[in-house]
Amino acid sequence: MNEKKKKQLTNQQKGRLAILVTFLLVVIALVSGVTIGSSNISPAAFFEAWAKGDTTASAYRIVIHSRLPRVLGALLAGSSLAVCGSILQAVLQNPLASPSVIGVNNGAGLLVLLCSALLPSRPSLLPLAAFLGALLTALAVFALAMGKSVSRVTLVLTGIAMSSILGAGMNCIMILYPDAYIGASTFLVGGLSAVTLKSLEAPVWYILIGLLLAMMMRRDMNIVSLGSDTARSLGMSVGRTRFLLVFTAAILAGAAVSFAGLISFVGLIIPHGFRFLIGNDNRYLVPSCIFAGGAFVILCDLVSRTAFAPYEVPVGILLSFLGGPFFIYLIIRSRRRVND
């Protein structure tokens, strides 16, 4: 009994340490993202211009109109997608589940393009359209995952097939409506170059609500991940709880896609990395994902816009290079466990 308590205490200490470290990491990433670029800007130069009210100073203009919106967008997108991935993995009891793998991102993207094509004068509807697309796709996968005969591999393959179908729908819309989305190529691979403070006004509320719901339901995620029978024996309404969690995941994924495009693999890499470090306790995993996901995308975006200067690579391409091999590794490891 003492050994069990000691191990539990150790896991709690790891979880709290992870939250502290990731918080410090996101602060460092925010400062780096704002100050480092094609022209480096010292914090002192920016604050001096800000204190004097000199809006014409180059440091002020670069930070306020270019880097700050981009860094905030990366923070919001990374946090929401990482938490979305942790929720889907808990609900579907599948370590390979993530918003990009099971088609949630493409579902949001399809309705975003459709809304842009049919209602080009209503950009404020894009976050809502993205949310609805993500929700419908997530519910479809959720319904399939409830089948007793559905294996983890079958579920992932079905998600990939759904992503392909939804991707074909997006391509069809762009052929029929070439002006459906300005910079559609960047949207499809995922990028933050077009993010402005105005474009974040609506999504930020969706994301804050989604993150708040996720934080409130961390204990429920722990119970759901134990399986339906165990959750029911503990008095949980499994169907309602799973629906609320899927609803939360759809809010997060849809809001992120509405301004950042189809950024992939954040919801796969970050939750897995922290499960390896601190275990499966969502009380610590969710807040760690909030900070680590934001820091991860900020730093990846920083690399993508500085490594090949004066050219810029959309951050979604870099994330695909990182996430693709990681996904293959997880599939191989999953097959080895089945064989063993």
What would your notes on this structure say?
Helices cover 76% and strands 0% of the residues. By secondary structure, it is mainly α. The protein has one domain (2-12, 80-281, 313-339): ABC transporter involved in vitamin B12 uptake, BtuC. Helix 5 (126-145) crosses helix 11. The longest helix has 35 residues, at 58-92. The model has no long low-confidence stretch (mean pLDDT 82).
Topology:
Blueprint: H1 2-35, H2 43-52, H3 58-92, H4 104-118, H5 126-145, H6 152-176, H7 184-189, H8 203-216, H9 218-224, H10 228-233, H11 238-260, H12 266-278, H13 282-306, H14 315-339
Helix pairs in contact: 1-3, 1-13, 3-8, 3-11, 3-12, 3-13, 4-5, 4-6, 4-11, 5-6, 5-11, 8-11, 9-13, 12-13
Keywords:
mainly alpha, ABC transporter involved in vitamin B12 uptake, BtuC
Coarse structural class: mainly alpha
CATH fold name, please? ABC transporter involved in vitamin B12 uptake, BtuC
How helical, in percent, are the residues? Answer: over 70%
Query: Could you state the order of secondary-structure elements as H and E?
Result: HHHHHHHHHHHHHH
Low-confidence stretches: none
- The value of Rg in angstroms is 20 Å
Quick recap of the structure?
With 340 residues, the protein is mainly α. The chain is built from 14 helices and no strands.
